[in-house]
Amino acid sequence: MISAQQEKAALRHIARQNRRAAYAAKGDISTQLQQHFPYEGMPERGVAVGYWPAGSEASGVDALGVLYEQGWSVYLPHRLEDDGNMDFAAWASGQEMQPGRLGISIPAGVPAIDLESVDLVVIPLLAFDETGARLGQGGGYFDRALEKWMSAKPVSVIGLAYEEQQLPAIPVEAHDQRLDYVVTDKRLWRFAK
């Protein structure tokens, strides 16, 4: 019998191909994604964590810019630790970025901090399904951070993707964190938890 980890590894291969093909066909979809911010029921402001896109990831830079302009405090991953944890740095719209670990750009000149309280997470993904399950790169960085933040209070989790990144089903393990929403170039998906 195939394990959930083996199934996820096979799905990651398919999902990377799907995402690369969508990126090649559509290019940057950040303008389409930004149109869904703010979404109905979103707090007016708070602390948001996002990501800087790498490779064929859907870019949420415009959406994060909208949040920043509305008064949100926005943070991006600054340092990925060997133990699987992340530190974060404050980000401002238009801020210069610099190369970081694993080819991920990080905010320039801003010291890393450990966030204790987060209201909204804009998260990258390889794939999602109609239940809100998320397939990430496999490092578990965001899952660990989400688990910590969610232990303190509810956190809204939004994935950004090309519509072609949807898969029929993704196996979910105990440590996996589900999405509340996925914003694609086509629509806003809402998931019940």
Q: What does this entry show, briefly?
A:
This protein is of the alpha/beta class. The protein is 25% helix and 22% strand.
Would you list the SSEs in sequence order as H and E? Answer: HHEHEEEEEEEHEEE
Sheet with the most strands: spatial strand order: 3-2-1-6-9-10-11
Total helical segments: 4
Number of strands: 11
CATH architecture: 3-Layer(aba) Sandwich
Oligomer: single chain
The CATH class, by name, is Alpha Beta
| Secondary-structure class | alpha/beta
The dominant shape is globular
The main sheet comes to:
7 strands, mixed
**% residues in beta strands:** 15-25%
Rg computed from alpha carbons, rounded to a whole number of angstroms: 16 Å
Which range best describes the helical content: under 10%, 10-25%, 25-40%, 40-55%, 55-70% or over 70%? Answer: 25-40%
Give the count of structural domains. 1
CATH superfamily: NagB/RpiA/CoA transferase-like
Describe the structure.
By secondary structure, the protein is α/β, with parallel strands linked by helices. 25% of the residues lie in helices and 22% in strands. Strand 1, helix 3 (61-69) and strand 2 form a beta-alpha-beta unit. The longest helix has 23 residues, at 4-26. The mean pLDDT is 88.
